[in-house]
Amino acid sequence: MDGGRSSPTGNAPDAAVLLVDFDGGTDGHRAQYNAMLAHLFRVRVAPFTPATTVARQPILVPQIEHSPVGFLILCLARAALGRRTVGLLLRPLPALHGATMRLRLKRLVLRLLRHLPGARVLTIVPFDIEPDFAKIAHGWIHDLQNWDGALGTATDPAATEQLSLAIRKAAGERLVCCAIGGQNRHKGFDRFAAIYADNPDLRARMLFAYGGKVAAPLGAASERFEQVGGFALNRFISDAELTAFYHAADIIWCVYDPAYDQASGLLGRAMQFGIPVAVRSGSVIERICRMEGHPHLALASIDDWDGLLSPPPAMPLAEAADRARRHGQVSLAKLAEALGVKPANDPFASPPQVP
Q1: Crossing angle for the helix pair 219-227 and 189-198, nearest 10 degrees?
Q2: What angle do CA 71, 77, 82 make, to 5 degrees?
Q3: What is the pLDDT of residue 227?
Q4: Quick check: pTM over 0.90?
Q5: Does residue 196 register a pLDDT over 80?
Q6: What is the spatial distance between Cα 172 and Cα 253, in angstroms, rounded to a whole number?
């Protein structure tokens, strides 16, 4: 870390920004987001307490979704003191269009915050994807996992190569489609497993491989997937193993359930590696791929699986790295402006790194 001023866990003694965590969990993207923000700014992770609420430093809430009402209370209290509070909105589309009582309340909270002094809400999806996001947010950044490769995050090359070679060996001359991370219905694992198990013609020409813990309700689907020859790593995977799946893949599975229509860290990493992705037709991430010119295959239904056998060519790594760098430059500037502080580290001051 530059100058030793901030730790990867976010405990800088002279913190310029407080990172407020409403429940202290480490699920989803939270650990990666917190570590990345700790690299960029001098931060201290702090609980939601009266002392934190009145702190003079600007506050950043990395995921508003964990407590929209708590975020509103925090913003109201700090607005009365003339202090800044910034929150990242990871799932703006459901907040904008959702019909449930919970989502209606969330939408009302966000619309109120649009007019509250000192409060700033930033989506992780550009407004170009959905201009109406401007009704519930002040601005946007690119998903942090679209550009974290610019930080030079290291993985174990030996572990990466070993698993990548194992996947390619299992595939032989076949193409490889990989699903990565926690496997559940939101991520489309039920469809992923069923397509492979039900179609011997597909299995003859492509290997499906996944790495990540399978949700308990889909245990039978995973067992059937393995019985027909799918490559399975049914457990939490390390960063090196995650990278190995990307290295082995001809295309990445991002065909998510319609209820999970949001930005995706898996897409972000695929964009950094230049690897094509399979997406659900009409989804937010399909729109992101179109806007960014990223190679992708849009599936209208699981019956369209034959398109997987002709994936689009990968984007050159240098071009993908340049795009990640541009995303990072824009996003870091927007975050710094919203918080009213300068970054502690500027990963864009040196030449771009290929992830």
Answers
A1: 30
A2: 115
A3: 97
A4: no
A5: yes
A6: 20
- Contact between 42 and 80 under an 8 Å Cβ cutoff? The reply is no
The domain made up of 151-309 is a member of CATH 3.40.50.2000 = yes
CA distances from 181 to 211, 231, 234 (A): 6, 14, 10
Helix (H) and strand (E) counts in the chain: 13, 12
Q: In a 3-state reduction of DSSP, which class is residue 45?
A: strand
> What residues contact residue 180 under an 8 Å CB cut-off, 6+ apart?
210, 211, 212, 237, 242, 245, 246, 252, 253, 266
In this structure, what is the dihedral angle of CA atoms 226, 228, 229, 234, given to the nearest 10 degrees? -10
CA distance 75 to 83: 9
**Size of the chain, expressed as the number of residues it contains:** 355
Find, among 117, 136, 145, 19, the residue nearest to 68 by Cα.
136
Instruction: Give the H/E segment covering residue 47.
Output: strand 43-47
pLDDT 10s digits, 94-107: 999 989 999 999 99
Kindly give the interhelix angle for 317-339 and 265-273, rounded to the nearest 10 degrees: 130
* Contact partners, residue 54, CB within 8 Å, separation at least 6: 77, 78, 81, 83
- Write out the two tokens for 219: 């245990």
> Both tokens of residue 50?
């009266």
Give the pLDDT band (50/70/90) at residue 138. very high
Looking at the DSSP assignment, which residues form a beta bridge with residue 253? 278
Rounded CA separation 255/251 (Å)? 11
**Would you say the C-alpha torsion 234, 250, 169, 238 has a positive or negative sign?**
negative
E-strand stretches of 68-216: 85-89, 119-123, 139-140, 175-180, 206-211
Q: What DSSP designation does 11 have?
A: B
224-232: list long-range contacts, CB under 8 Å, 24+ apart: 224/193, 224/197, 225/192, 225/193, 225/196, 225/197, 227/197, 228/196, 228/197, 228/203, 229/203, 230/193, 230/196, 230/197, 231/167, 231/170, 231/171, 231/207
How many Å apart are CA 316 and CA 319, to the nearest integer?
5
